[in-house]
Write a structure and sequence with these properties.
403 residues; alpha/beta; 13 helices; 38% helix; disordered C terminus
């Protein structure tokens, strides 16, 4: 029997116990390792029946509950969420939970707290696009801090990935998030784009991130650094806080100011992050000198294969841009400077994927058409009496004329 139970993307409206039990019938919960219910909508009664099923699981590793409350009343969501999350408390095998794209807001996050504050086996937490706001974000962050503090002395947190973008966390929850990140200290991937966090909040967040030396993917896109946040970020880069960093996304973060080189770029130009593969600095007010500095460090970053730098204060033929492009090409890398570059690359990737997915065509020998041979003509057979009469009539008609 399969270890994965999935209704992913089926658009089901599961209101009652009977609605969901029809799908769970015959499924042994003790064998299930993954459950994927995203893209359906689950009411309170159905959630309670689902919770009974989840409570019986003994090997559950992955729980995907993204986008399961579309169209539900704000009064329904806390009750349904509470039933589901409470059933997961104490699941020592659970490694990943995805609750993205559910409109919790700040009013519906409390049911998450008992689970999150005790989920010691959890490695991956995905809470993207939940409309948490500063209040809801603080509740989640505090629960994660409680989780870290509940560990026995000398026991390391297992949490490795936090994805919490598009949640309007703002500065109001930044301190709480910084404390949570610092308390765990084991994070390898943190993605918190588009949260409206500004300079003071970013400064706190970056200092919390500095406690996570194993960080290899950091995405803070579309939060505002400006001078204050950029200096704090640069200080941690100069300190080598993230020696394993492979992907850094600071696009739309206002890390540069007119007429000045961003301290973030100056820190990157020291070449301390020799495992860096992807650097995203789009729309950051960077000028040609910043590009020149980056060009000069490329040879110290042998794994750097992609720099995205669209919509900065340069032209594509600027000296610094050309220098960076040339340096990247020497080691097989790419500089993306406009939408056309990106579209061209996407087309190439799609073509490669199509080629990989297309089944190999077997070589079939061409089918030779079957030709029925026509015997060669022999001497003409003698004409019948009818044929002779027809010929005679045709001769007579040729002689007839109409006047």
């Amino acid at each position: 029997m399969s270890t994965v139970f999935s209704l992913l993307g089926q658009g089901l409206k599961l209101d009652t116990r009977a609605d969901i039990e029809a799908h769970l019938a015959g499924v042994d919960p003790t064998l299930i390792e993954e459950i994927h219910l995203g893209g359906n909508t689950i009411g309170v009664e159905a959630a309670q029946a689902l919770a009974e099923f989840l409570a019986k699981t003994t090997q559950l590793r992955v729980a995907n509950f993204a986008d399961i409350f579309t169209g539900r009343l704000i009064s329904e969501i806390p009750l349904a969420l509470s039933a589901i999350c409470d059933s997961l408390i104490g699941k020592s095998t659970l490694e990943e939970i995805d609750l993205s794209d559910n409109a919790f807001g700040g009013r519906s996050v409390d049911p998450l707290v008992p689970f999150l504050s005790s989920a010691r086996s959890l490695q991956v937490l995905k809470l993207n696009n939940n409309g948490l706001g500063p209040a809801g974000g603080t509740v989640i962050a505090d629960a994660l801090t409680t989780l870290a503090q509940s560990l026995e002395k000398g026991q390391k947190s297992k949490l490795r990935t936090i994805i919490c973008g598009r949640n309007r966390l703002e500065d109001g929850s930044a301190e709480a998030w910084a404390a949570a990140l610092r308390a765990h200290g084991t994070l390898q991937e943190v993605r918190m784009p588009q949260n409206g966090i500004r300079m003071a909040g970013i400064s706190s967040l970056v200092q919390g991130l500095a406690a996570n030396a194993d960080l290899h993917h950091l995405d803070l896109q579309d939060n505002t650094f400006a001078s204050e946040g950029s200096k704090v970020m640069a200080a941690e880069l100069n300190r080598g806080s993230w020696p394993l960093l492979r992907q850094l996304n600071l696009s739309d973060c206002v890390i540069g100011e007119e007429g000045e080189v961003s301290p973030v770029v100056e820190a990157l130009a020291k070449g301390l992050h020799d495992k860096l593969e992807i650097l995203q600095l789009q729309n950051d007010n960077l000028e040609t000198e910043a590009f020149s500095l980056l060009a000069g460090v490329v040879e110290k970053l042998p794994k750097l294969r992609r720099v995205e730098a669209q919509w900065n204060e340069v032209e594509e033929d600027d000296e610094g841009v050309v220098a960076l492009l040339t340096a990247l090409r020497k080691q097989g890398g790419k500089l993306v400077m406009n939408d056309e570059d990106e579209e061209e690359e996407e087309e190439e990737e799609l073509e490669e994927e199509a080629a990989e997915e297309a089944p190999a065509k077997e070589t079939v020998p061409p089918v030779q058409p079957t030709v029925t041979p026509v015997p060669a003509a022999t001497e003409a057979a003698p004409k019948s009496v009818t044929d002779k009469a027809t010929d005679a009539l045709a001769d007579l008609l040729e002689k007839v004329s109409i006047r």
